[in-house]
Amino acid sequence: MAALVRIMEDINKKLQGKPAPKVLIFVYGTLKRNGSLNSHLHGQEFVAEATTQALYRMYRHQDGWYPILVEDENGIEIEGEVWRVSQDVIPVLDRVEGDEYQRTVIRLKPPFDEELVKAWVYDGKVRQDELPELGPCWRASNGTQ
Fold first, then answer.
1. CA 89 to CA 142: how far, in whole Å?
2. What are 60's strand-pairing partners?
3. Is there a cis peptide before residue 111, judged by omega within 30 degrees of 0?
4. How many C-beta atoms lie closer than 10 Å to residue 93's C-beta?
5. Which CATH architecture fits 19-142?
6. Are 45 and 84 a contacting pair, CB within 8 Å?
């Protein structure tokens, strides 16, 4: 047991001061470049614009100032951005997105179709007749960021 403790201490010493591992995320609304919440991605790496496979729909949240992404087997392609972020940013983004969202793997079109990319997807029931659908892209032209 003492040997295991020493090994774990050695591993911890080697990891100290090293940057946290990076992960890919897909953002489609206020976290995008020039979005109202993009400051939470300060210091992170923008990778590329990207598009989901046609498995989602985007609606304006009932509060009106941000979008929600919902899985839908009759969905459309949603435009967004892929960012490479440090693991220590993920809890911050979880707080920003709030309890109504869940982080899940999202399916993107090439060249990201074989990558493990996560996004925050609305975790609630959406009555399609109650919320306005935003189409494929969240832009200022639809009253949003």
1. 29
2. 67
3. yes
4. 21
5. Roll (3.10)
6. yes
Give SS3 for 32. coil
What are the two backbone dihedrals, phi and then psi, of residue 80, each rounded to the nearest 5 degrees? Answer: -165, -155
Verdict on whether the full-model pTM lies above 0.85: no
Question: Strands, DSSP E only, in 34-116?
Answer: 45-51, 56-60, 67-71, 79-86, 101-105
Residue 132 DSSP code: -
- The answer for residues whose C-beta is within 8 angstroms of residue 13's C-beta and 6 or more apart is none
Please name the residue that has the structure tokens 């941000």: 66
Token pair for 104: 């899940």
User: How many alpha carbons fall within 13 Å on the CB side of residue 125?
Assistant: 2
| pLDDT tens, the chain, 145 aa long | 444 445 545 555 555 666 667 889 999 988 999 888 999 999 999 999 999 999 999 988 777 678 888 888 999 999 999 999 999 998 998 888 888 888 888 889 999 888 888 887 766 666 666 788 888 888 744 444 4
84 and 20 Cβ atoms separated by less than 8 Å? no
Domain ranges of the chain: 19-142
